[in-house]
Amino acid sequence: QVQLVESGGGLVQAGGSLRLSCTASGRTFTRCAMGWFRQAPGKERELVATISVSAIYTYYVDSVKGRFTISRDNAKNTVYLQMDSLKPEDTAVYYCAAAPAINSNTYYSRISDYDLWGQGTQVTVSS
Q1: Which pLDDT does position 82 carry in this prediction?
Q2: Residue 77, Cβ neighbours under 10 Å: how many?
């Protein structure tokens, strides 16, 4: 069964850090660009960051640039999201997702490009 499993969420004070992990099974990880999304209560799901298969190319939404870092370890079928200098407005359920990639240097920024999703992990940042 193909699945993505996230871990690493939790409660942290503003200014703190968390690292999210997402491990894939049942699919060729190295054929997928990966993305992290988040959804806060009452808001639409939004892209946070995405990374190509090669890990050379990444994209971040403006609100997290300079604070979050996406990375991947293809040998471990795992993608990470290092979140530093967290703010209360980062509070949300965070989801990882996989998008079949046309080549190793493409990343995807549209939700519709992603066809496999994890169950989500809660991140709460207190002020």
Answers
A1: 98
A2: 18
User: DSSP secondary structure string, 34-65?
Assistant: EEEEEE-TTS--EEEEEE-TTSS-EEE-GGGT
Distance of CA 54 to the CA centre of its chain: 16
The strand pairing partners of 35, in sequence order, are 50, 97
Q: Is 17 helix (H, G, I), strand (E, B) or coil?
A: coil
CA dist list (Å): 68 to 37, 49, 57, 86, 87: 12, 8, 15, 9, 11
Q: What is the mean pLDDT of residues 78-102?
A: 97
Q: Can you give the pLDDT at residue 1?
A: 64
Cβ-Cβ contacts under 8 Å for 91 (sequence gap 6 or more): 40, 123, 124, 125
DSSP state of 100: E
pLDDT digits (tens, 9 = 90+) for 16-67: 999 999 999 877 899 999 999 999 999 999 999 999 999 999 999 999 999 9
Q: What's the start-to-end Cα distance of the chain, in Å?
A: 40
Q: What confidence score (pLDDT) does residue 33 get?
A: 97
